[in-house]
């Protein structure tokens, strides 16, 4: 039996157990994938200062994100098609997050619905919204999130048009997926996954099918979504969402100081420095490289978080040291889910937390609230422009 000690161990196991088209969907970027790689590679360039002969007892990584208590400054990012990594995947991930003590964010493009998550969890979760042309459907979705007692809304701003992801095109990842000979042969090598899917009724986009006019199955959904991502998205639309929602609003996809200032002006409660996991604009800087300048510009006015490339607790600590008051993990969660279901997600969170806790101690701190740039070796981390 494989001993799981790192997120990489979970990734390797997930690659073995999840059909290629769905594994590649989660573990890939757009075009050359240079930004996708930079997201994790740039963390490795940042070096830590080890301190000794300090009292390392009674450590805590606890903090809050938009006023919600969290065991560590991490939440689960919205990831589309999570329910195709493992049967009922969003439910499993949400339950693991609740067990651990961090928030879970449900994607608009999830397999399990808002109502599914509310039914299977007791902790408040967050809902992620894409800006669609169909405002009536969006208003209904926001109302459904309110009824499910979601405690925050995450509005993704960087998917007005969809980046070209070559692996998805080559794998025939469409809605519904193309049953090519290669895909069928690959599915035959994943009996555990197939058995799980045979045992659930959740195989389509639960937030959309049956909830949006004229969307009654996967085929009609495909034509609807192709027309719906709104390239005209503006800050006036953000104001409309804020008025419709009325609760905590998090804006995801900020990579530029000017956009960060506009986000503050919009009245958002937090922003996420994010390049969509390297799945949109290839050639953009990594999230960790973009973070310091945005923190310097608006960090005293709004909670600044980041996502992209986090594969360890050390990455979380480095992001915190550079001013992020929260982080989102997507792929690390997906690897755990694909590898071992709910227990795999919990394992991923435990791995990240242990690395965060021990690394903080080695850097001479017992409370994450006291950690700042001084734990980083000068000259190894990105500076604010």
TrEMBL record:
Family the entry assigns: Belongs to the FMN-dependent alpha-hydroxy acid dehydrogenase family.
Cross-referenced PANTHER family: 2-HYDROXYACID OXIDASE 1, S -2-HYDROXY-ACID OXIDASE-RELATED
Residues in FMN hydroxy acid dehydrogenase domain copies: 1-381
One GO molecular-function entry: FMN binding
Organism: Hydrogenophaga aromaticivorans
Binding site for FMN: 78-80, 107, 128, 130, 156, 252, 274, 307-311, 330-331
Name by which UniProt lists this protein: Alpha-hydroxy-acid oxidizing protein
Keywords: Flavoprotein, FMN, Oxidoreductase
Cellular component GO terms, alphabetical: plasma membrane
Gene3D superfamilies reported in the protein's UniProt record: Aldolase class I
Residues annotated for glyoxylate binding in this entry: 25, 165, 276, 279
Gene Ontology biological process: aerobic respiration
């Amino acid at each position: 039996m494989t001993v799981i000690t790192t997120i990489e161990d979970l990734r390797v196991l997930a690659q073995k157990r999840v059909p290629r088209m769905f594994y590649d969907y989660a573990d890939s970027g757009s075009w050359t994938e240079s930004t996708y790689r930079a997201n994790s590679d740039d963390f490795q360039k940042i070096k830590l200062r080890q301190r000794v002969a300090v009292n390392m007892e009674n450590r805590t990584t606890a903090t809050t994100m938009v006023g919600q208590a969290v065991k560590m400054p991490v939440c689960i990012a919205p990831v589309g098609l999570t329910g195709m990594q493992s049967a009922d995947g969003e439910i499993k991930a949400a339950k693991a997050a609740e067990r651990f003590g961090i928030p879970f964010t449900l994607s608009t493009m999830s397999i399990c619905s808002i109502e599914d998550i509310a039914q299977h969890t007791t902790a408040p979760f967050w809902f992620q919204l894409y800006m669609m042309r169909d405002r009536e459907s969006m208003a209904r979705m926001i109302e459904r999130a309110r009824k499910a007692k979601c405690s925050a809304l995450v509005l993704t701003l960087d998917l007005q048009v969809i980046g070209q992801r070559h692996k998805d095109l080559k794998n025939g990842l469409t809605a519904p997926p193309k049953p090519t000979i290669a895909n069928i042969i690959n599915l035959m090598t994943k009996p555990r996954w197939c058995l799980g899917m045979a045992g659930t009724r959740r195989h389509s986009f639960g937030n959309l099918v049956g909830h949006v006019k004229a969307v009654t199955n996967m085929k009609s959904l495909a034509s609807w979504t192709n027309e719906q991502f709104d390239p005209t998205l503006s800050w006036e639309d953000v104001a409309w969402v804020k008025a419709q929602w009325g609760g905590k609003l998090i804006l995801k996809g900020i990579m530029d100081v000017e956009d960060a200032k506009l986000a503050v002006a919009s009245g958002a409660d937090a922003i996420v420095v994010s390049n969509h996991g390297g799945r949109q604009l290839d050639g953009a800087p990594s999230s960790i490289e973009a973070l310091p300048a945005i923190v310097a510009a608006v960090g005293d006015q709004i909670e600044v978080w980041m996502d992209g490339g986090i594969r360890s607790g050390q990455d979380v600590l480095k992001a915190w040291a550079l001013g992020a008051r929260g982080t989102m993990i997507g792929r690390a969660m997906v690897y755990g889910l694909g590898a071992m279901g709910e227990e795999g997600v919990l394992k991923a969170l435990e791995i990240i937390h242990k690395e965060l806790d021990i690394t903080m101690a080695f850097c001479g701190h017992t409370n994450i609230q006291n950690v700042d740039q001084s734990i980083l070796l000068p000259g190894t981390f990105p500076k604010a422009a």
